[in-house]
Design a protein that fits this description.
The complex is a heterodimer of chains A (107) and B (122).
Chain A (H helix, E strand, L loop, with lengths): L3 E4 L2 E4 L5 E7 L7 E6 L6 E5 L3 E2 L7 E6 L2 E6 L9 E6 L6 E2 L3 E5 L1
Parallel strand pairs in A: 2-11
Antiparallel strand pairs in A: 1-3, 3-8, 4-5, 4-9, 5-6, 7-8, 9-10, 9-11
Chain B lengths: L2 E5 L3 E2 L5 E8 L9 E7 L6 E6 L5 E3 L1 H4 L2 E6 L4 E6 L8 E11 L2 E7 L3 E5 L2
Parallel strand pairs in B: 2-11
Antiparallel strand pairs in B: 1-3, 3-8, 4-5, 4-9, 5-6, 7-8, 9-10, 9-11
The chains are: A mainly beta (107), B mainly beta (122).
């Protein structure tokens, strides 16, 4: 199985900050990586697919980059609605696997 | 507007079978463009992929769950289902159904149901 490791596990930041979350794959997954945002009691929401493609309707302050084994999700200027947990997921090969999550908290 | 809605018992006894259904509106289960899947999230933990099905009945399962899992499609009713047998407390989780839509070369979970809590307890 491909292991996905996110860092940090928790991130404290303020409105207006630029933040970056990293996701590393144990094997190369080309660009088959997605990023999701999840708020408490809600389903995950797709933000980014194929490493750097912004899902329709997602604000442009979200961006993704990377290929192979190292990927990043960047939020250019944090808004109050962005405080949530973020997950990466590889869909290069079965079994599909998720990172453990990064909780973005208000500082 | 695509909508997915999970339904099924919220409480299942140990050793019994967990059965959930995902009703789909706004898209056709019979479409060759998409796959359909189940993901779960134990309380306070991360996401775990359970398995995926295609309109023709093809399935793929997460190996640790494969021996206990069956996912099937019901095309006349535009829904798909999950059966997980011999459940234990470790199967207590929120269960999500989701569509894997085709985007830029492959299929990604682009639309999710709201999730349903399933507790395994006697």
């Amino acid at each position: 199985d491909i292991q996905m490791t996110q860092s940090p596990s928790t991130l404290s930041a303020s409105v207006g900050d630029r933040v970056t979350i990293t996701c590393r794959a144990s094997l190369s997954i080309s660009s088959w990586l997605a990023w999701y945002q999840q708020k408490p009691g809600k389903a995950p929401k797709l933000l980014i697919y194929k490493a750097s493609n912004l899902e329709s309707g997602v604000p442009s302050r979200f961006s993704g980059s990377g290929s192979g084994t190292e990927f990043t999700l960047t939020i250019s200027s944090l808004q109050p609605d962005d405080f949530a947990t973020y997950y990466c997921q590889q869909y290069d090969s079965y079994p599909y696997t998720f990172g453990q999550g990064t909780k973005l908290e208000i500082k | 507007q695509l909508q997915l809605q999970e339904s099924g018992p919220g409480l299942v006894k140990p050793s019994e079978t967990l059965s959930l259904t995902c009703s789909v509106s706004g898209d056709s289960i019979s479409s060759s463009s998409n796959y359909w899947g189940w993901i779960r999230q134990p309380p306070g933990k991360g996401l775990e992929w359970i398995g995926t099905t295609y309109y023709d009945g093809t399935t793929d399962y997460n190996p640790p769950l494969k021996s206990r899992t069956t996912i099937s499609v019901d095309t006349p009713n535009n829904q798909f289902s999950l059966n997980l047998s011999s459940v234990t407390a470790a199967d207590t989780a929120v269960y999500f159904c989701a569509r894997r839509g085709f985007k830029n070369g492959w299929h990604v979970f682009d639309s999710w149901g709201q999730g349903t809590q399933v507790t395994v307890s006697s």
